[in-house]
Amino acid sequence: MAQKPNPLNSITISGPIPAHLARAVIEETLRSAILDGRLPCGTALRQQDLADLFGVSRMPVREALRQLEAQSLLHVVAHKGAVVAPLIEGDATETYALRILLECEALRLSIPLLDEADFAEAASHIDHLETETDYAEIGRLNRLFHMALYRKAPNRRLLTLIENGLWEEERFLRFNLGSMGLGKLTQEDHRELLRIAQARDIDQGVAKLTHHLNRAVEVITRYLNSIESQGKTSTN
């Protein structure tokens, strides 16, 4: 009987990792492998296996796994340890309702503090999104665009929660965008949101962001419902 491939074999480590960088290197390496699918949903990540792979003790591994769990990329499951999470958690409507609250607050706090460099960076991400066809890169650029507008919010904990949600969305888009039948992704919402932020119109910015995220949840919910319907049809 053929031995089942070990997903950890897809991860290459080049040279020893300095002790003071171990946690960050492990976290970033595993995050990249989860986001690009080398570590699929349901993959169990055992601390000792990871410690052996990275050539470190279990302490930085444990810390890295804790960070990835906070980013909704892992779950801790009884008798299995850390397991790569599903592509989207629970009810998409509830997930986006929470994102709207958090992101609107960050935008409200950030707009007065944004400068021309922030606006130029956000505009650059939009320009790249207009021509990008790689779904992985589209998800990454979308995350970077939103964080460019939120990042001046002085509440660091709020920004951490928001970025965790954007990581989850990036991973979902990477593997589902091609199947969602959206055609070319226009950037009208993003350009309008940037224009409003440049005008320092906080109320209009919050209203536009709310509309933008509500449209996203409608598309994703419709797509997930269609998958569920197809699954029920195939089993009947």
TrEMBL record:
**Domain HTH gntR-type positions:** 20-87
The protein's matches in InterPro entries, at most eight in alphabetical order, are given as:
GntR_C (IPR011711), TF_FadR/GntR_C (IPR008920), Tscrpt_reg_HTH_GntR (IPR000524), WH-like_DNA-bd_sf (IPR036388), WH_DNA-bd_sf (IPR036390)
One Gene Ontology term of the molecular function aspect: DNA binding
Arranged from A to Z, the UniProt key words for this protein are: DNA-binding, Transcription, Transcription regulation
Keyword set includes Kinase: no
Q: Where is the signal peptide?
A: none
Which Pfam families would you find in this protein's record?
Answer: FCD, GntR
Q: Is the keyword Transcription regulation in the record?
A: yes
Q: What is this protein called?
A: GntR family transcriptional regulator
Provide the organism lineage as a comma list. Bacteria, Pseudomonadati, Pseudomonadota, Gammaproteobacteria, Pseudomonadales
